[in-house]
From TrEMBL:
GO terms for cellular component: chromosome, telomeric region; nucleus. It comes from the Eukaryota. Signal peptide: none annotated. Residues 8-58 form the OB domain. This is CST complex subunit STN1. Gene3D superfamilies: Nucleic acid-binding proteins. It is found in: Chromosome, Telomere; Nucleus. GO terms for molecular function: DNA binding. PANTHER family: CST COMPLEX SUBUNIT STN1 (PTHR13989:SF33), REPLICATION PROTEIN A-RELATED (PTHR13989). Keywords: Chromosome, DNA-binding, Nucleus, Telomere. Pfam families: tRNA_anti-codon.
Amino acid sequence: MHIVVEYMLDDGSGEVNLVKWEEAMGNVLALGDVVRVQGKLKRSTWSNAVEVTISNVVLVTDPNEEVLHWMEVRHLFLTVYLSTPCEHVPNGAPRITAFRRAFTVLRKAGLCHLEDADNDVYCFVTLPAALQPWIVGTVRGRSRRILPRSALQSDVMWIVDEGETSVSHLVSKVVQLKLFRHLSLDWIAAAINELSKANVLSATGTQISIK
């Protein structure tokens, strides 16, 4: 005895209904399975929608096959489905200029380093790691940290009288740095949260202190 089973397939470019004849006691595909499908694409006899009648379906167990599929989907999107295909951007274009400016800011902030000049390879530092020395220097109680002139808008000495400070106060201190003044306050707060998760800082409510 055979039964008709319908599935919804998402290949990354859209969804399509699949129709498959299954044995009554046979193995039925499960939701979320990654499969390779062979079949016939046609209009449904019940509606005007397009459907695929499956002739063969194989479960995909090689993760590389899935990765290659998504690369192909991306290629098809850019070359076939995109209404305005990507074009070469001249060096003088405003967006390229803005990108170069942002790249320079990242390098000055210590978030980006040239790793291989011959192959033009750069490595990027996560924001929490870049902020850690500044944040720890700010929070450390009864300590004085004289920041380098190049890092600040003016000569500033950070003095913390207590060994604990609020997250909002810490964010306001970090954003005063010339290196980080362009960053979103939410990004800085998120970096502080990551340092707390990494046990660099100790968070109690809205208060932060050194571990």
